Amino acid sequence: MLRIRGWRIGGLFAGLVFCFAAASEGATPRLHVEGNQIKDPAGREVVLRGVALIDLGFLESWHGGAFAMIDRLTDQTDTQGASPGWYPKVLRINITPPDAVDYGWPHPFDPEDDAFYNTLLRPVVDACKSKDLYVIIDWHYVANTWDHVETTSAFWEYMAPRFAEDSHVIFELFNEPINDVHGDWIFNSNDTADWLSVRQDMQTWVDIVRAHAPRNLILVGGAFYSQVIGPAATYPVNDPIGGGNIAYVSHIYPGHWCDSNWSSSYQNQITTCHSAHPVVMTEWGFSDQAGSSTPSDLLMGTITEYGQPLMNFVEGLGISHTAWVASYNWGPPMFWNNWTLRCGEGEMGCFVKDTLYLRREDDQPGLLAGDFTGEGDVNMADLETLAAFWLEDDCLLTAGTDLDGDCAVDLYEFFEMSQNWLR
User: Fold this and answer.
1) CB neighbours of 272 closer than 8 A, spacing ≥ 6?
2) 37 near 373, Cβ under 8 Å?
3) DSSP count for the chain of H helices, then E strands
4) Is 369 a member of any domain?
């Protein structure tokens, strides 16, 4: 029996199951912002790398199933390309608002009906946790923010309390704001006005989220399809409750990166914002559009001209990123319609997979010593876990609590935990 400051901890907690302190709990600790970096509870810089999915309901009913896609994107035996398997650390879960499509899609979100959450979203989010993946919940509007304040407020009023305790869940408030206030495109003196119009509505949604979920990382998009984010360096969204736990979203495609007239302006938006805040590129991708009757200049690119230079750029800045998109008929696609990867100089499938493999051990999150539950702090729940395995010396049982590799839980673990108590 363990006695600490008058508390007696012993048999009461002996029934705690081993999975409570399993390694997977520690693989996705709660993340936070410090300066222009995303960090884990121990203060290590974290860069999340992964893949974006199409609309969750569409994927589940018409595209082979959400769980099949998660398994596909985490298959460490897939030898396509130059890598031996898949190694993402984050999946972006697209939830397209029902009023953003011309016809009804399956499994629509309805704040008055829990079916979408209970039967699809919550199981998917939990499946990602079991595979040590972070999840970005992406409210996938492409529109002016001011046209969708009510529906977006209802969405986050619903979602925030349900995922507040999930350390691996990140909220992306509004996919691609447009908000070209003066109708004069971008990279001019009105960029700040465009951003401020976005910020006004983002502030509403940040306040809603923080009323329920004070600790989840929040992603905020910029004006003009999340390309004008530079003014956020000077005029950030306020987050007094979350302590500024906000990163800003950039979307860059070949039509932006390879434009000889404007490429430097797109990059400058990113570097300016990143001088003060973290940036997360939740969409990037390319394809030569082989077989398409309507190729898009925006998406037309190659590994040499776009893919590798962009990755060099974001990795150099420590920017997290998710490739758009894991599909065969949403573009730019990573797969062919038989679910084999699109590979080669003008395709992104194998390039994404190989890039994730090469970076699989870089900038990964870890835990504070003594954070046995993986929630990002050290508190009574961790003390209970320590007590449950106190003086245990079976290597199989102590794998989640043994900090010094001797297979035993003893004073060493207690001392290490005490150094981070209530952090």
Assistant:
1) 229, 230, 233
2) no
3) 14, 14
4) no
Element (H, E) at 198: helix 191-212
Q: Is 397 found in the same domain as 311?
A: no
Domain assignment of residue 323, given as a range: 38-358
Structural domain includes residue 33: no
Judge if the upstream peptide bond of residue 332 is cis by omega within 30 degrees of 0. Answer: yes
Instruction: Tell me the two tokens of residue 47.
Output: 């860069």
In terms of domains, do 6 and 93 share one? no
Give yes or no: residues 339 and 399 share one domain. no
What number of residues does the chain have?
423
What pTM was computed for the model?
A: 0.87
The closest alpha carbon to 200, from 170, 235, 176, 230, belongs to 235
Which pLDDT score, from 0 to 100, does residue 23 have?
35
User: How far is Cα 331 from Cα 63, in angstroms, rounded to an integer?
Assistant: 14
Q: What pLDDT score does 367 carry?
A: 72
Domain CATH for 83? 3.20.20.80
Model pLDDT, residue 26: 56
| Residues near 207 by beta carbon (within 8 Å), at least 6 away in sequence | none
**What are the residue ranges of helices labelled H in 253-335?**
254-257, 263-274, 308-317
Measured between alpha carbons, how far is 368 from 417 in angstroms, rounded to an integer? 8
Residues 6 or more apart from 241 whose CB is under 8 A from it?
A: 210, 211, 214
Q: Where are the alpha helices (DSSP H) in 213-322?
A: 223-226, 254-257, 263-274, 308-317
238/145 same-domain check = yes
**Could you tell me if 287 and 330 are in contact, meaning their C-beta atoms sit under 8 angstroms apart?**
no
Q: At what angle do helices 149-163 and 191-212 cross, to 10 degrees?
A: 40
Question: Same structural domain for residues 252 and 203?
Answer: yes
Question: Would you say 191 and 185 are in contact if contact means Cβ atoms under 8 Å apart?
Answer: no
Count of structural domains, the chain: 2
Residue 32 lies in a domain: no
Task: Give tens-digit pLDDT for 29-85.
Answer: 999 999 999 999 989 999 999 999 999 999 999 999 999 999 999 999 999 999 999
Both 236 and 331 in a single domain? Answer: yes
Q: Is residue 123 part of a domain?
A: yes
**Is residue 108 domain-shared with residue 6, that is, in the same domain?**
no
Task: Report the C-alpha gap between 414 and 223 in whole angstroms.
Answer: 49
